[in-house]
Structure formats: structure tokens, C-alpha cells
Amino acid sequence: MTTATTGALPPSPPSVPLKQDAAVIGLVGLAHATSHFSHLLLAPLFPLFIRDFGLTYSDVGLLMTVFFVISGTGQALSGFLVDRVGARPVLFAAVFCFLLASLVASQANGYAGLMGVAVLAGLGNAPFHPADFTILNQRVSSARLGHAFSVHGLTGSLGWALAPVFLVGIASLGQWRTAYYAAAVLYAGVLALMFWQRHHLKTEVVAKPSHAAAVSDLAFLRLPVVWWCFAFFLLSTVTLAVVQSFAPSILKALYGVSVEAATLTVSAYMLCSALGMLVGGFVAAYGQRSHLSSDRVVAWAMLAGAALMLVCATGWLGGSGTMAALAATGFAVGVGGPSRDMMIKRATPKGATGRVYGTVYSGLDVGFAVSPLVFGLLMDRGWYAATLAGGALVLGLSVIAAVGVGRRTA
To answer: Which of 41, 43, 131, 338, by CA, is between 20 and 30 Å from 210?
Structure first.
């Protein structure tokens, strides 16, 4: 069994005021919401780009592939930068990239301009997880970390939910360029608030002890537990990508559900996931007090989600029942979110928080990039139920990865 040392820094004193922790959690949560908002900076307006610029679905699909490839690669690399210079300046630069991406989008006159948006947004998205978790692990008292991780996941889901409403809503009132001007103003406001409250976001760079001075910054990659964590994120994200990409088409094809109702199912999944993360924060806090291992909480949550999704694939529930069960799947997976982040924290060697979170969370980008390619083949053949069953199977495999993390963590 391979053992990893615990945490990024010694736990904060239990006497830290709630107001101070809440300020840190709120600022990091707001930043995380902007990250997830930016995942959908282009996608909701794809139909308008296709109309105005004469693009194909393959053209606009490539924009998302570029976004996630840059984000995933950059996420793994930005963890090293966070560990060297601290999380705060990296986080500021990331939000500034989103602001630039919105301004470029507002001036785009063709495919090249949209590709520039994808590149800038991918660069901006890359550092968020290593930066966010470095701040939370250093600045939030250990007793409130479960709730901090809960809010972090919840705000991410809300960012996903807000982006289509914000961009499409404003675009419907005028030109789509106006929506991007509004997005730039939104990012500028977030950046100004973060700068004003920057003292809450400061982190310390952990110096290596003298006996480890010659050890490479890549030494953590030799820990098997890091790759078990990476595998967990990749597998669990594949299932989320199945729901986001194909659930509306599956519901319409199998049950004749309207496009509007089917699309709302994805929104319901994300909102239930956010609610699950809120509940999961209390579960994670209870686990800390009762010595319930975080990997077991994660495993049970993912297993429940896989079972619900498998029932959806059988067709037993009909259209309405399947939509409700998919929403419940989001809740089950969401409950495991805060414990998942606690699980990663326990597997992180001291002083390597940015590098480990960057590497591990790059599995999320890989999952988003790979899933549509693999399951798109099933969809093209009309194997709609098999697509849901495949998503359930992959989520079930993530249970094995979670248990593997627990067995290799001290």
C-alpha cells in the first residue's frame, strides 16, 4: 500500500471566526461560479454563430474540444505555478482572461474570433481548481472545510445554470454581442470585488524542507494515489457529460418528450446536484466528527447514482419517471461532492496542493473531452438506452476508483 501524507498545511485553529471563514468561502465560491459560467460562454449561442457565420455543428463542436484540451493541459501545469507564487495572483489572472474572452467574443467576425475566445476561456479556466483548493485548505478552519467544499461545488453548478439564461436572455433582447459586453461587465465586477477583498485570498508558499531540496517537483506523480484520484474524476465526469450532451436527445427519441422539457431535465439535474452538494457538506462534516472515511461516502453516493441511471436505461419509468430519476441521479452524485474533495485533500502531500489538485482535476477536462466522442458513436447508431446504461457503468467504475484512493491514503 502506498501512503500519502495528509493535507496541505496544518489545520487552522478552531477559534477562527465564522465571519472570516465565510468571507473566504464566499469569495472562492464566487470565483468558481465564474469558472463554470465560462464553460458555457460559447455553447448557448451556437445556433446564432451557425446562422451568422455559416458554420457547421462540427465547427462549433471543435471550439469546445479546444477549450477543454487547453483547460485540462493548463490545469495540470498551473498547479505548479500556484505552489510557487501563491493562488491569489493566478486567480486574478484567470478572471482577467475571462474578461478578455468576453471582449473578443463581442468583436468576433468569424470562426477565427470564436476560436480565440475558446483559447482565452480555456486558459482562464485552467487554474481554478488548484488555486481554489489551495486557498480553501490554507484559509478555512478544518472544522468548516466540509461546508467550504460543499459551497464550492454548489456555486459551480449555479454557474452552469446561470450562463445559458444570462447569455440567451440578453441576446434575445438585442444582439448577441450585447450579451458578451454584459458578460465582460460581470467579470469586471467579480475581479473588482476579489481585489477589494484580496486579503482573504492570500496564501503562503510552502518552502521545501532542506532534506527535500533536491527532490523534483514531479515527485508527487510517483504516488499511485494521485492517479487513482485522476481516474475517479475522469470516470465520474464521463457520466456528467453523457447527461449534459445527450439526455435531451435520448428523452425525445425514446419518449417523445418535447425539446423544452428535455432540456429542463438537464437544468433539474444540475440544480439537484447543487442541492446534493449542500447536503453533502453536512455529511462530510459529520464524517469528520465520526471518523467516517470520505472515500466510503463518495463510493456510496456514486453507487446510488449509478443504480438510478441504470434504472433509467431500462425504460421502466416512462418519460416523466425517467426525467425525475435523472434529476435524482444529480442529487446522489452531488451528495458525494464535498466528501470527494476531502478525499483528495487527505491524499495530497504537504506543500503540493496546487500540483495535486491541478493534475487530479485535469481528469475532469479529459472526461468532458472524451465522453461525447465515445458515447456519440452509440447515439449515432440509435442505441439510446445503451448510452444511459454506459453512463451508469462508468459511474459504477468510479466507485472502484474511490475505494482505491481510500486504500492508498493514510
So the answer is: 131
